[in-house]
Design brief:
Radius of gyration: 43 Å
Structural class: alpha/beta
Strand order of the largest sheet: 2-1-3-4-5
Shape: elongated
Number of strands: 17
CATH superfamily of the largest domain: Histidine kinase-like ATPase, C-terminal domain
Number of domains: 4
CATH topology of the largest domain: Heat Shock Protein 90
Number of helices: 16
Distance between the termini: 62 Å
Strand content: 15-25%
CATH class of the largest domain: Alpha Beta
Amino acid sequence: MVGSDSFEPKLPRILIVEDDPGMVDLMHAMLGQANSVAETVLSTYSGEEALDILRREQRAGHPVDLVLLDIMMPGMDGYEVIARVKADPNLRHTSFIVTTALDSVSSKTLGLGMGADDYLTKPFDPRELLARIDAVMRIRRSEQALRRRNEELAALVEVNRVVSSSLELDGVLEATMEGIREIVPVEAGCLVLLDEDSGELTCRQTLRPDSRRLAGRRLASGGLVERVVSTGEMELVDDVDRDPRLSGELGIGIEDIVPESVLCVPLRIRERTIGAITLINKRDGRFNDQDLELLTAMAASVAVAVENANLYTEVADFATELERSQAKLVQAEKMAGIGRLAASLAHEINNPLQGIHNSLHLSLHQGLAEDRRGEYLSMAQSEVERLIEIVQRMLDFYRPSRGGVKSADLNQVVGEVLALAQKRFQHSRIEVHTDLQPDLPEISLVPDQISQVLLNLVINAIEALPSGGDLWIKTALSDGGGDVLLSVRDNGLGMSSEQIAHLFEPFYTTKSEGTGLGLAISYGIIERHGGAIEVSSQPGEGTTFVVRLPVGLEG
């Protein structure tokens, strides 16, 4: 059953401050004759001692609720007592009823203006005293409840702000439990989440000193928490011993606390229950409707935040996997590019190998003069160095990209790619014309990725020149100076406007062989560099690709 807010109000702790001992005794007698007026009645004869008592009781954890204060006292009078109490952050909510023999309006209004809640003119009837105490305490309890409510709502707003501003799940859960600690003081608590694949409930955060021991523990089946998650309905148990719904254990692994009252609220999002928040043993009484309302509001926000954090994690994982797959695809296309150069590269490697073989064979000839032997060995060494350079170019190109952006000279990248494809140009009877602007500014790029783009454009041009032809490679600075331009032009077969419209689509190809991924991957690489790639072509008139790369782009 849900707890009720209509509890018996706590009796006030009252301090009598009066310099007349007879009046102190009389007021003690008035309060003592009435039943259920005060929990404790303290008294003192001076304003200075009154301040000491108020501060002492506040530090001890049982503050004074109401002061019956005489105005006219020697030393520190009642007005100064009120002023000092209201200026103290720890005491400023103390209530005052001033008692005075002065019947002037100015005396009464001065006390009320300084913060007194009511006044009594001496002599006064005991019934009037009790009625005024009752009225002031009713107002005080209302103010306390309002302050408490404002504090809870402020804490709730802060929790909502924190959990809604974070996409990191552990941060959301930790902020939730810290917020609960501020709003509802309890002996223990636990936030559990449901693994929707396995159906298991796991304790993710607790309000316990040994939270690390409990964090990550799977909940036992058949407990209260599992029932709340299964039904999606909250449960509030005022008296565990007498409530048949709690015949079993809570199931959250907190064995050293005897549960007396329990509040468990589900975390629901879009008609699904994804977990629950459980609180055990409220420190200042039983759980009530207000606690339920606050925890339910918090659970709603937390459920949304948890769902968002989970979605963000899924998206981040997907993006990581997509990036990994894309890197593999880029590497596969890079290897395909090397494959398209395989015949010419094999020939280029074979030439120095043949030279090495012949030089070594001649150097081993008996009777050969030492100077000739040295000449042959020197020729072999030169061919070895040439072979190393060829292999190193290939290794530099086809090893997986490390993705490091650095400042580089585009002309140098062009030179390395043309050197790699040199034999293919010769075999295909293609004349290469270069026009590389010498004073180009360095740009931020991933060199091996731009090399891959250029090699793909070069190989495409070679394959568009089946009977040989001309290839023009040009670099320049754009008119406004904001981009470096790389142009690859051939006088080959050309393309129709329909072919151009689909040219950068994955798996689209105009050739009988090929993956159809080269230009799509090249487009993505240039786009990630903040640039653009453009194409113009006419059937039978060749094709021109222009790559734009921004100057000054930070990596």
